[in-house]
Every structure is written in structure tokens, then in C-alpha cells.
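Forwarding the complex inputs:
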Amino acid sequence: MTHEELKQDLSLFALGALTAEESQELERHLAEGCDECEGEIQHWREVVELMPLVADVEAPPGLRDELMRRVADGASTAEAPARRAQVIPLRRRWMPIALAAAALLLIAYGITREADLRSRLTSQQEAVAQLRTALDRASTNLAQGEVELKRARDVLAERERDASSLRAALAAAEQSLSLLHQPGLNLVRLKQTPDAKPAEGHVLISPSGKALFYAFDLAPLPEGKVYELWWITEKEGPVNAGLFRLDEGGLGQVEAAVPTTAGAIKAAAVTIEPEGGVPKPTGPMVLLGNV
Amino acid sequence: MVAEVERLAVALGRREESALAELYDRYGGTVYALALRMTGDQGMAQEIALDAFLQVWQQVDRFDSRQGSLEGWLFTIARSRAIDRMRAARAAKRNLAEEKRDPDESVAAEPPERMIELAERQRFVRRAMTELSPAQRATLELAYFQGLSHSEIAERLGEPLGTVKTRIRQAMLVLRKVLIPVLATS
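Prediction (whole assembly, two chains):
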């Protein structure tokens, strides 16, 4: 090792914290007469020599007398272990202090180790907790997302259904109205019968045999009743042309075909009939118009 | 302080038992506490304390005040004894010069201000220890009170060797800085 490297280890050397090999190498370096390290080591030794002052326990009473007795006896330190049995028994009151002192180091070490482990555990737990929170949040978001997605799908499906029925309605309306574009259209007006309340109806009949019927101002029907439209023909008399109810605006509407085998149509009429309609009129006539 | 150390050392050299008694009165508690803290055994701590004082008594002629204070020497002996006992295989390594000096002073009664000075230094040392982080303090105590080398500490704490060495160096620098007022050489 270089001088600078050895100098770095002087404090550890003074503390006695170097390994045997490292200590020997430093001792050799000092023995070689490095003044700088020699001066430095003195500072560190002084620091180390003060360390025992951190401890604060009174020596057991009687220890002083034992020391002076051994000195008077001319005891050598080598004999000391053999005399160990002669050491005066400690008073009970020193036990807690001694135990406390003995435990101190273990506690200091334990606390450091535990604090370190606890700190690592805490940070890991925090990390886990954060991940868990993030996961929960993500799950919640996912669940919410799924709910919203489902809702959006439902809305979309509803819209599609609406659009589909609108398309169908539009197609039907277009088909109905296409009638109006045909030349030779015949219009028949229907009026209320003498006993009926005032009302009105129109039938548009195209040369191709299709017809559109509209009724206005008819009275609302009781449950179980329906309006039935009739063609009054030359050969078969009344022929069913279709059933209808009034919409919210009071409008009645039927798309009908003109019969081809019943001879000429003389008139169109509307009667009130039981639910489901009947082959021949049974109820009161409310509208009638000659073709 | 130096004169005080010289005075006691000289009196000890003259085999004046009152000087040993005075030394014990000043440092008996500290030496015993040190040994107890290191070994955790009261009987062993008493033996170590007795051995340390007896060794100072018998080998005072090896004491060199230029190498450090008399109390430092006493503490070093006590610590070495404790380490020897705790780890028979681990020999304490201390370079103590073996120079003799001429005894020319006699022992005086223990002046109270000396005790105050000791208390003052204790106060400084304890404060210095509180300046250390818990990890620094624990590592330093493993080294000093348990006599463990940095590699043994690293093994015990399960930490890298470099970390332990650096922590000890930093801890020692903190102590040295705080203890400057009570260090003779600084």
C-alpha cells in the first residue's frame, strides 16, 4: 500500500479495527519512520483513548480495597485469574446496571440492524402499497372503462336500432309518397255519416292499384274496438281494405290495395269493428265516400 | 494536564501506593465500566479492572507520556485485557515505548479541579458520541468495545467492507472534530 493509502487507515488502526495483516503493514510503515503518519496516529490515539469516558458506571465498592490488597501482597497481573474466586461478590444493586451495560451494545447493534431492516422493509412495503394503489386504481379505471364501454355500446345499439327503424319508417314513407308522383292519381273524399260525429277521410288511389287512406277527427275508440276500412265493390259488396287506429294526433292511416276481382269500386267506407277486424261490416259506419 | 500525568506516573514509578489509589479514585469507575461494557460480565469486568491497574503499577516504567496520556494508557490496557479475555486468539496490538524517566516529583492530594476536568471531558465525549449517526455509533462501538476488525464488522452487519471502513473513518473524523477542545495534541 502507498503512504496515502496507509494514512487513510490510521484512524482505523488507532481504533484497532484493521485486520492483523493491515495492522502489521501499518506498524512497519510507522517503524520505517514516517513522521507524517506518526504525528497523525497520535491524534487518533488520543481520540480513541477518550472513548471509555462515554461509559458511566461506578465500580463495585470493595474493588479498590481488593486492588490495594493485591498491591500490598505484591501480586502480579499473571496471578490475577487464579485469584478470581476471591473477588468480592457483587451486591445485588449492581445487577441491573451491569445487565444494562451488557445489553447496551447488543441493543445498539440490534437497533442499528433492526432499523436498517425495518427501513428496507418499510420502503418495500411502501413500494408494494404504491403498486397496489396503482393496481387498484387501474382496476377501478378498467372497471369504469368497461362500464362506460358497455354503456356506449348500448347507446350505440339503441342509436342503431333508432336509425334502423327511422330508415324503415323513411323507406315506408318514401314508398307511400311515391304514390303521389304517379300520374292519373284518383282522390276520394269521405264524410261522416248522418249519425256520426263530424269527421273526414281521403283515399288516394293510383292507377297501379295501390291506395293510401287518411282519416281526420275520428273519435277515439274504446278498448277492444278498431276502425276497419272497406271497399264497396260492384260484385262482392264490402271488401276489407285494412284496419287502423288513431295515432296521438288523432290521425288514422291505412295503406291498401285495390281489389282486382271484385269488380268496380263504387265507394269506400269506415266502420267500428271488434279487435282483429271482421270479413263483413257489423258495426256502425262512421265515414263514407263515393268513388 | 501533562504535568499532572507526569506527577502521577512519577509517583507510581516510585512505588507510591497512594498514587495508585489516586489513579483508581479517578478512573476506577471508568475502567470498570469499560470492561463491563465490553464483556458484559461483572466478575470479568472486576478482574479486568484489577489487572489493568496492577499492570500500570508494575509496568509504569514503560509509560511514555509522549505516546499519550496516562489515562489513555490505562484505558488501552484495560481494553486490551478485555479483548484478550473475550477473544483469546486476538492479541491486542499496542506500541508502547519503553523509556524510563527520572522520578523527581512527589504525589500531592487529588485537587478537585482535576475531577472537574475529568467530568468535563466525559461531557465532551458523550456529546461527541451523540453527534454520530446510529449506524456510525454502532459500528464504532463494535470496533472499540467488541474489538472487532472492519472485516468482522462487515460480516456481522452484512454490509460491504468499503461501507464499514468509510463509516468508521467518518465517525472518527466526527469524534476528532468535536473532541478538539479536550485533545492535548490538537
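The first helix of chain A runs from residue 3 to 8.
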